[in-house]
Specification:
The protein is mainly α. It has 1 helix and no strands. The longest helix has about 30 residues.
């Protein structure tokens, strides 16, 4: 089975609006959008990598596991930090 054809399309990176200069919340929303964009790209590349590996393509690196098999670190695994913006607890 082929990976989704949509994986061959590179989504546009979120661009910040002027509001990020004046609003912390707008900046955080933009940061979250960029993070989601990067995660989606990583998932796309992972699907393509695993597909081509399964087709027998020799790869000089390992492919990332599917999203459902990845371990996600809990907030408790990052002592002293409360969130993605690095604020101290």
């Amino acid at each position: 089975m082929f990976p989704p054809a949509e994986d061959l399309r590179v989504p546009e990176k979120p661009k910040p609006g002027l509001e990020v200069l004046f609003s912390r919340e707008a900046g955080e929303r933009h940061d979250n959008a960029v993070e989601a964009w990067g995660e989606a790209l990583a998932a796309q590349v992972g699907r393509q990598c695993r597909f081509w590996r399964e087709q027998g393509m020799p790869l000089p690196f390992d492919c990332p596991p599917p999203e459902e098999e990845r371990e996600t670190p809990s907030q408790d695994a990052r002592p002293g930090l409360s969130g993605h913006n690095g604020e101290r607890r």
